[in-house]
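Technical annex, item 7. During the second reporting period the consortium partners agreed on a shared format for inverse folding records so that results from different sites could be compared directly. Each record opens with the tokenized structure and is followed by the designed sequence. A conforming record, contributed by the partner at site C, is shown below for reference.
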């Protein structure tokens, strides 16, 4: 089951306080970015946050699951926790701070 555009729009709206947030559709699902850095996946209308130590400290009871078959484990953020925009923004921000910058790909000429 693919994620709905309305769910992605809701998440981007909830995360707007964190800065430049966007969601890009990929294979029927979405990748969530903060300032161009991929921080989470939205798969089957569920939020999967990239695992970091800072994120683990913020989430009281961590639930981990793969966003799709064969993927590494991510933190599964329950939908009822999406309602607290301030907490969700802080969580995504501390996660992004701990992640490496995305690799830049040079185009071949």
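Designed sequence (site C submission):
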């Amino acid at each position: 089951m693919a994620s709905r555009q309305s769910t992605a729009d809701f998440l981007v709206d909830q995360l707007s306080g964190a800065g430049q947030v966007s969601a890009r559709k990929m294979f029927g699902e979405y990748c969530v970015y903060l300032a161009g850095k991929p921080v989470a996946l939205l798969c089957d209308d569920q939020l999967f946050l990239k695992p970091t130590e800072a994120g683990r400290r913020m989430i009281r009871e961590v639930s981990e699951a793969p966003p799709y078959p064969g993927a590494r484990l991510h933190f599964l953020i329950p939908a009822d926790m999406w309602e607290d925009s301030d907490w969700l923004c802080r969580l995504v921000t501390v996660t992004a701070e701990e992640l490496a910058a995305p690799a830049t790909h040079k185009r071949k000429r």
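The first strand starts at residue 21 and ends at 26. Residues 5-98 form a domain with the Yope Regulator; Chain: A, fold (CATH 3.30.1460.30). All partners now use this format for quarterly exchanges.
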